[in-house]
UniProtKB/TrEMBL annotation:
PROSITE patterns: ADH_SHORT. Keywords: Oxidoreductase. Signal peptide: none annotated. InterPro entries: NAD(P)-bd_dom_sf, Sc_DH/Rdtase_CS, SDR, SDR_fam. The keyword Oxidoreductase applies. Pfam families: adh_short_C2. Belongs to the short-chain dehydrogenases/reductases (SDR) family. GO terms for molecular function: 3-oxoacyl-[acyl-carrier-protein] reductase (NADPH) activity. It is an enzyme of class 1 (oxidoreductase). It catalyses: a (3R)-hydroxyacyl-[ACP] + NADP(+) = a 3-oxoacyl-[ACP] + NADPH + H(+). The lineage of its organism: Eukaryota, Metazoa, Spiralia, Lophotrochozoa, Mollusca. It comes from the Eukaryota. It comes from Magallana gigas (Pacific oyster). This is 3-oxoacyl-[acyl-carrier-protein] reductase.
Amino acid sequence: KEISKLHHNGVDILVNNAGINHVSPIDEYPDEKWDVMISIMLTSPFDLIKYFIPSMKQKGWGRIINISSMMGLISQPGKAVYSAAKSGIIGLSRGVALEGAPFGVTCNAICPGFAYTAVTDPQVRAFQEKEGLATFDEAKEKFFSRAPTGKPVEVGQISDLVVFLCSSGADSMTGSPIVIDGGFTVQ
């Protein structure tokens, strides 16, 4: 509600981008980690959309972009909870898209593949240990080479996609999970 003090007419563009991860088999998954991950990655975007969409509808224009993950479309061992939250973001985006469309409000989910961020750093370290690799740089190179492009998705590529989704060229794009993963999910 503090944002209303700064922007009396609401916001035109909302980008929900939050991600944390805890990798663990489901039967060993701590309940408190589930609660935190779902709260941050699914409940918070829901709350923000619920708060901001009325002013977007009233103005007849708005863009809601939720950052999901390729793990919202696929999963890997130990990532069931992360995948559940990111799959939920895709479903939330689709539902909001249907509700916003008559008012000129679009809602999409970007599904990035592995990008080198604070979320992937611990995964690369675990990969290094599992594979017995000598250096972190070697582990990073091998970790990201699993995508057909052989490299991580650049954060700038994701932000360029956000900018496009806010443009008039994306007026008819709504409810879409948009994959940017170097071909990882089509293998």
